[in-house]
Specification:
Shape: globular
Structural class: mainly alpha
Distance between the termini: 58 Å
Order of helices and strands: HHHHH
Strand content: under 5%
CATH class: Mainly Alpha
CATH topology: Four Helix Bundle (Hemerythrin (Met), subunit A)
Number of strands: 0
Number of domains: 1
Radius of gyration: 20 Å
Length: 126
């Protein structure tokens, strides 16, 4: 019985993966969306639907972030919450311009990258 207990304890005691924080998850999602935007924009002539899909993914992410910062229980400072909500609105409008070929993906990539720097603590937030 002791051998079984020791084996079970060794299996359950070791963490398979470190627990992710909300901040690290946000960073990961922004990084993935940013990569998809860049790749899809580069291939937009051959696969316009890929660009639309990447823009939609980025907008869904920003929509979720906007809903989170609009929640009164959000603990971020109100000025930062307002800035993030503004970036969501800008992202919606600029994504439309990219779809219409009158805007560049670079602005969206720059916004995501700046927010990722802020999440990482590099002082590059909004």
């Amino acid at each position: 019985m002791t051998a079984h207990f020791t084996a079970a304890r060794s299996v359950y005691a070791r963490p398979e993966a470190p627990q992710k924080t909300p901040r690290s998850l946000e960073y990961e999602l922004l990084a993935r969306a940013t990569q998809h935007l860049s790749q899809a924009y580069a291939a937009r002539k051959e696969c316009y639907s890929g660009l639309v899909a990447a823009l939609d993914e980025n907008q869904r992410l920003w929509s979720t972030l906007a809903a989170d910062v609009a929640d009164p229980s959000n603990s971020l400072p109100s000025k930062l919450r307002a800035q993030l909500f503004y970036l969501y609105e800008f992202t919606v409008h600029h994504s439309r311009a990219v779809r219409e070929d009158s805007g560049s993906i670079g602005v969206l990539v720059d916004i995501n990258t700046a927010v990722m720097r802020g999440l990482r603590g590099d002082g590059g937030g909004v």
